[in-house]
Design brief:
Blueprint: E1 7-15, E2 18-27, E3 32-37, H1 46-56, E4 60-70, H2 72-75, H3 81-97, H4 106-195, H5 205-221, H6 226-243, H7 251-255, H8 258-279, H9 283-303
Parallel strand pairs: 3-4
Antiparallel strand pairs: 1-2, 2-4
Helix pairs in contact: 1-4, 4-5, 4-6, 4-9, 6-8, 8-9
Length: 307
């Protein structure tokens, strides 16, 4: 499937500690560029967030903004009865061996409980963050696919215009080559007549005409654009495979970026259009080459936004 590099996604996840909201935005870029804005208190989550994004995305300038809201009721400093019960049992065990073991002070109890809860809270925030990130990525990827489908549809429409131009030029080729051959033959005859008005005694008129026709035919072959048109058709077929998400049978290509593959393909198509223009032997082919280059450039500009 074709994905655009321009999209937005957002999601929120909650836990007993509070809530985390993640906003994702992206614009086109040649490579994957991650810009993460995470509050200092949750900075320990950055490595996992970055890894998850790198696994899910290939290209684009990605901006992630994470915000969180604490549950104030949970954040209030208070001793947990279950925690106190556990400490009381441990204190009783200690006094069974050392009777004068002193009871901990309130501040010590608070600090001890806080240290024990720190790791537990970190794990809860981590789970909440990954849940929000997963939902935001789903929303984000769906938006990229929708925009990618629109871009692909536009390029397929342009590709149909290119196919029509190629078909028109192919129909024009036989007449174009014949016209060129006739024109060259006439010029050769004129040049030979000017060089020797009395003719060539050692060459018969029939043989001279055959040689002129042969030279004209060889020269006109240089203007034959059939090969360029064949390659253009091949490139158009590959373009349809990419835009329609079809399997071309090339595993290395399937793993690559569609945007980069399209960029390379348009370079090749533009090269064929340039060659077509340089070999054009008629105004029709020249105009066709110009139209092809304009249409290819339109697709290339749209492909800049494809992942």
């Amino acid at each position: 499937m074709i994905s655009s590099m321009t999209a937005f996604g957002s999601a929120r996840a909650e836990s007993e500690l509070g809530s985390i909201t993640i906003d994702l935005r992206s614009v086109n870029n040649r490579y994957l560029d991650l810009n993460l804005r995470i509050p200092e208190e949750l900075r320990f989550l950055e490595a996992q967030v970055r890894e998850r994004l790198s696994e899910s995305l290939q290209r684009g300038k990605i901006e992630l903004r994470l915000s969180f809201h604490k549950n104030l009721l949970v954040q209030k400093s208070r001793l947990d009865p279950a925690y106190l019960e556990k400490l009381a049992a441990e204190l009783a065990l200690a006094r069974s061996f050392i009777p004068d073991t002193p009871a901990p002070k309130l501040q010590e109890l608070m600090q001890s409980q806080q240290q024990e809860q720190t790791q537990e809270k970190a794990e809860q925030w981590q789970a909440t963050c990954l849940e929000a990130l997963g939902q935001a990525l789903q929303d984000f990827q769906a938006a990229r696919l929708r925009e990618g489908e629109r871009l692909a549809a536009d390029m397929l429409t342009i590709a149909e215009d290119i196919q029509r131009i190629v078909a028109d030029v192919e129909q024009h080729i036989p007449q174009m080559l014949q016209d060129q051959q006739n024109k060259i033959s006439d010029r050769l005859r004129e040049s030979l007549n000017l060089a020797n008005p009395e003719g060539f005694s050692h060459i018969s008129g029939e043989e001279l005409s055959a040689r002129i026709a042969q030279e004209a035919s060889l020269f006109s072959l240089r203007s034959d654009v059939a090969e360029e048109l064949t390659r253009l058709r091949s490139h158009l077929k590959e373009l349809q495979h990419i835009l329609q998400g079809k399997d071309t049978g090339n595993k290395r290509q399937r793993k690559g970026s569609s945007g980069k593959r399209l960029d390379f393909l348009f370079q090749e198509m533009n090269r064929e259009a340039n060659t077509l223009g340089s070999k054009a032997g008629s105004l029709t082919v020249t105009e066709a080459a110009i139209d092809l280059k304009l249409l290819i450039e339109q697709m290339r500009e749209q492909a800049q936004n494809i992942e």
